[in-house]
Specification:
Helix content is about 70%, strand content about 0%. The chain is mostly helical. It has one domain.
Length: about 260
């Protein structure tokens, strides 16, 4: 764990230094993502100004949902930015570089890249939660923990989706569709879904653990709900690691001699 923390910290520092070589471009991308998120939130707040409650959810709950999802996504792809490129690396046989080094392959692949727009999502989540909810110290602490579980669930789901490339070959399109579906469903109030769709959002496509459970926990704390979301996040990490390792046994080297970007 200590070695993994050191590896992650080292890559974060190096990636950030690389991004800051072009400060204007980096900060413009961060700002653009912040504005994009604000536009979507403005749409939802305008909707709730006309319809104050939807299945018990109002402006504060939707703002909380967006804050948790955005910040969790931002943290996830800041730390593990290669998650969304994993299928391409597998299909093109580009895992060779990581296999040759004395580090866990999956964690090394994930942390070696940083999404430059992701800090904008984190900033958006912090601003929205602070301005709309007006949280106390305890709520801030719980918010931070739920952002972490959200990041783990998103990254783990992405790893499993992209690991399909071990069996299907070129699975980038399918993996991106699954990832897009998760993010899309996570930005709609889960309470509007019923029946089989709602079951799907708490199992195959775990948007409920990203959007619904954190909001309800911040609304009315429950130890059982907190234990549930922590347990599910841990399960997702274990499952994604197992799926990746199973697929890695099928991996075929690309026999490439190239500098890693």
């Amino acid at each position: 764990m200590k070695g993994l923390l050191g590896l992650t910290t080292g890559y974060l520092k190096a990636n950030l230094q690389g991004a800051l070589e072009y400060r204007v471009g980096f900060f413009s991308q961060v700002f653009s993502m912040l504005v994009n998120d604000l536009m979507w939130l403005t749409f939802w707040l305008a909707y709730f100004s006309k319809f104050p409650l939807v299945q018990g959810w109002g402006r504060e709950q939707v703002a909380t949902m967006w804050a948790v999802v955005a910040a969790g996504f931002g943290v996830g792809v800041t730390v593990a930015g290669n998650a969304n490129f994993l299928a391409g690396l597998i299909a093109r046989g580009q895992l060779d570089f990581y296999l040759a080094l004395p580090r866990p392959v999956l964690s090394h692949v994930l942390v070696s890249r940083m999404e430059l727009t992701a800090p904008g999502d984190v900033l958006f989540g912090l601003i929205v939660f602070g301005v709309v909810v007006h949280p106390g110290v305890g709520q801030w602490a719980l918010f931070g923990l739920l952002v972490l579980t959200t990041a783990l669930i998103i990254v783990s789901f992405t790893v499993m989706a992209h690991s399909l490339a071990f069996w299907l070959g070129d699975a980038e399109g399918l993996a991106n569709e699954l990832w897009g579906a998760l993010i899309s469903f996570s930005t709609y109030p889960t309470v509007i879904f019923k029946g089989a769709v709602k079951v799907l959002l708490f199992t195959v496509l775990p948007a409920g653990f990203i959007a619904y459970v954190p909001v309800e926990l911040l609304r009315q704390f429950s130890w059982s709900w907190l234990g549930g979301v922590l347990g599910f996040a841990a399960l997702m990490v274990v499952a994604s690691t197992a799926v990746f390792r199973a697929g890695l046994r099928r991996y075929e080297s690309g026999n490439l001699i190239a500098a890693r970007q």
